[in-house]
Amino acid sequence: MMTRLFAAVCLSLASPLGASEFRLAWPVDCRLGLDCFIQQYVDHDPGPQATDFTCGTLSYDGHKGTDIALPSLRRMDQGVTVHAAAAGVVAGLRDGMTDAYASPERSAEIDGRDCGNGVVLRHPDGWETQYCHLKQGSVLVQKGARVARGAPLGEIGLSGRTQFPHLHLSVRHDGAVVDPFHPVAGFDAAESCAAPQAPTLAPALWQDDASPRYVATGVIDAGFAAQIPDYDAIKAGSADTAALPAHASALVLWAYAYGSLPGDELQLRIVAPDGTVFFHSRQTLDRQQSQYFRAGGKRVQAPLSAGTYRGHVEIWREGQLQDRDLVVLSQP
Predict the structure, then answer these.
(1) Which of 83, 88, 172, 285 can bridge 264 by disulfide, Cβ–Cβ 3.0-4.6 Å?
(2) What CATH number is attached to the domain comprising 238?
(3) Once rounded to an integer, what is the mean pLDDT over residues 90-107?
(4) Which residues of 79-107 are buried (b: 16+ CB within 10 A; e: fewer)?
(5) Domain around 124
(6) In the listed set 163, 180, 210, which residue is the last one of a domain according to the structure?
(7) Residues 6-10: contacts with CB within 8 Å, 24+ apart?
């Protein structure tokens, strides 16, 4: 089922009404920074470039929402509920589209239905929220139904035009896109971000207990393997191993991350059960990427010693630690 609210439209950024009481609850049943992360924000650059509300790079040209992403397809398959960010009336919905990566072969299926399976809620005073890329068969509401803040709407999926499982949350006021992190009119990223001082941010639309922290880059997942894993296995959530097979000829630590910039440094370190460093590498990243993975390790001539191996992953930018992760391997 589809309404005109799902049609592809070009919307300019607009402001909420200063003292509006419209506020958003966190819309996903996940813990930000632990089992989900924000991959993309609204694009504030009016030209062909892309700039998020902090003058950072977590956006792409013309992006009109907030993308709350899961680390893997396995986590998606386990079921992650999407909730109404505010009380409202179901103005439109769609279900039945396949959960699959967007590709040229699927363009005819996706064209005009980029949102995939989704729900549009209409709220008082001209506000709307839209929830895209829901899992096939998961939509729980009916058109015209009134839903409370926090009511379940469906689950995060991979439907529509997307390359990773996530919720795309759009917020609109009187039909114009609003960034819930910086809801202000006249914010020209090209001009404001070139100024010597950082732009002054408007109060966000999030409720005080739901305001997400901005993280410019971070580790999505990490793990051990007996060889460098395929990227598809990492995205599927099947690359990690609990213990290496007896015949393994190498021990590899891999890291899956987001938001890289040229010059960022990714450090991988494996500490053996006796506390010695089994492997250590520093890799300088040479380009901006929304998602990427790196791996490193060492060949072994004999079965690994039994015990716990610890994998340390760190992302550094301009001499500052941005994020870290720790994974363990219990070798029998």
Answers:
(1) 285
(2) 2.60.40.10
(3) 94
(4) ebebbbbbebebbbbbbebebbebeeeee
(5) 4-210
(6) 210
(7) 6/92, 6/94, 6/113, 6/115, 6/118, 6/120, 7/112, 8/112, 8/114, 10/62
